[in-house]
Amino acid sequence: MRPVVRAGLYAALTLAALTFIYPFLWMASSTLKPPFEVGSLALIPHDLTFENYRIMWSRAPFGRALLNSVFVASTITASVLVLGSMTAYAMARLTFPGRRVLNAVTMGVLLVPGQLTLIPLYTLIVQLGWIDTYTALIVPYLFNATAILMLRQFFLQIPQSLIDSARMDGMGELRILFTIFWPLARPALAIVAIFTFMGSWNEVLWPLLVVRDQQLMTLPQLLTVFQLGGGAGTLGVSLAAAMVLVVPVVVAYMFLQRYFIESMAGAGVKG
Amino acid sequence: MMQRPRPERSSMRAEQRSAWSLTAPYAAFLLAFAAYPVFFALALVFMHWDLVTPPSFAGGDNVRLLVTDARFGRAVLNTFVFLAIHLPLQIVTALGLALALNRRLAFRAFWRATFFLPVVISGAVVAILWNALYATDVGLINNLLAKLGGSPIPWLTDPSIAMPAIAVMVTWKNVGFYVIIYLAGLQYIPQSCREAIELDGATAWQRFRHLTLPMLLPQTILVVTLSTINGFQLFIEPYVMTGGGPLRRTYSVVLYMYTNAFSYQKMGYAATIGVALALIIGAVVAAQRRVIGTAEAA
Asked: Which of A39-48, B119-128, B190-199 has the highest mean pLDDT?
């Protein structure tokens, strides 16, 4: 590349990077400014204050929402990994009548748009009496078709000789799965774990439908309700509330960005 | 699997039994949370149900209402306005950034990670953040405009600007995802093709137009399909930022479905909107693929 072209390229990339990062930096700094200063472009607050965080924390149960989100997302992730890999193992490595049907149905599930099933799922939850319970937030997500197909694909590549010798040693299927397949499948499990956790962490439409009790709300839901209910009052307070949701994700992303990109881009393409 | 020695019958039975017990939870889950909702969605189309009194048969009421419902028509039209701005913008920015990243660069991982950052952030947060960026009086964008000598623009309160503003925001949020897709596609363009076309004396533009762009067609189709599906799912952005206004110009189909179910307790009609939405998405995506396919053949 000629030097002029090279300089232009880096200038363009810097401008693009600023477009993506500057809004987040501005958001972080705005939460530390008093209301009259929020509009300014400067990133360093003139009058540093934690007032926005104090107000946000006292007006709505954000600590509780953080715990709810962690609990719901972790439970779902654990289930998608454990139950999902049990299913994927059987679908990949065991012969049984019904295997093909299960495969076909799992692929079919990916083609059904979520909007089609949203309302009937909601009425089902109402009829089961699960409104305002963790069950409503967790159970419909216990399995994930994308995750099962990804794990199945990975399990298909593991040599049969490993299974045969393990069976010879008298190992059962569960032990083969968790002591032989899991260690080999670590990259696939990590990818599934990240997109499942992030999907649950960021989900807002489903909680808005099935939870009305503030004490059970997940973070993005409480954030949305707080914003719409006018509880924030000022821009600084509503951005401070958003920070509770953003900071853990950004910290995790900084350390694991390669896995995040691989996982979320891969899941989106397959799902 | 093929060359496996034929196991004895008892061990085959044991394998079947363990396979069934391993997959039974999933099969039950599929029946309850995948199969049942799909069939019940179709049944709900012919029902009136407020969740309090027992459901009643509605005949063609819901479908008839949907066809004549100006609010539903408005929501669908809004989505097309959104897509008309979002799709070209998404393709151009994603392709541009991917082409830039595909060169020999310092800090390539860093650039890639910054472009991808908004993808990992919750849509609710992005909506609240951009609400602040777009704010007419204290918003970052209008402040920037003022510095450059411009006058403030009512981004989210002007009926003709609000939907384009949301389309720009969604492009910003998702572009990093599509950059990754285009980057993967660029890896597959053989070096020999590039060299051959350069030897023929092609300019950079000709190389892009006649080699890169056609080779990236599968990625472009994917970008169009995924952003179209995504566009029809628009919910949290109008819900948080505009409430569907001004003058219902940002009202989305999912927001209308949610309102019918949650605020009006009309389960039959809400499900009808969901079924219609699924059909519209299928039709639009199929039409897009045909158009892109014939455009390429010409």
From this structure: B119-128
Binning pLDDT at 50, 70 and 90, where does residue A271 land?
very low
Amino acid (one-letter) located at A11: A
Closest alpha carbon within chain B to A262: B180
Query: Tokens representing A252?
Result: 């995790």
In this prediction, residue B89 carries a pLDDT of 97
Domain that holds residue B217: 61-297
Print burial letters for B4-37: b (CB count within 10 Å at least 16), e (below 16). eeeeeeeeeeebbebbeebbeebbebbeebbbeb
Q: Which CATH number fits domain A61-229: 3.40.980.10, 1.10.3720.10, 1.10.150.530, 1.10.275.10?
A: 1.10.3720.10
Segment B94-103, tens digit of pLDDT: 999 999 998 8
Q: Is A256 on the interface with B (CB under 8 A)?
A: no
A 62-81 near B (Cβ less than 8 A): none
Q: Closest approach of chain A CAs to the CA of B189, in angstroms?
A: 19
Closest chain A residue to B105, measured at CA: A10
| Residue B15: inside a domain | no
For residue A116, give the nearest of B101, B138, B275 by CB distance. B275
Nearest-Cα residue of chain A relative to residue B28:
A143
The CATH number of the domain where B217 resides is what? 1.10.3720.10
SS3 B47: strand
Contact B180 A261 (CB under 8 A): yes
pLDDT at A249: 92
Which of B166, B123, B96 lies closest to A245, judged by CA? B123
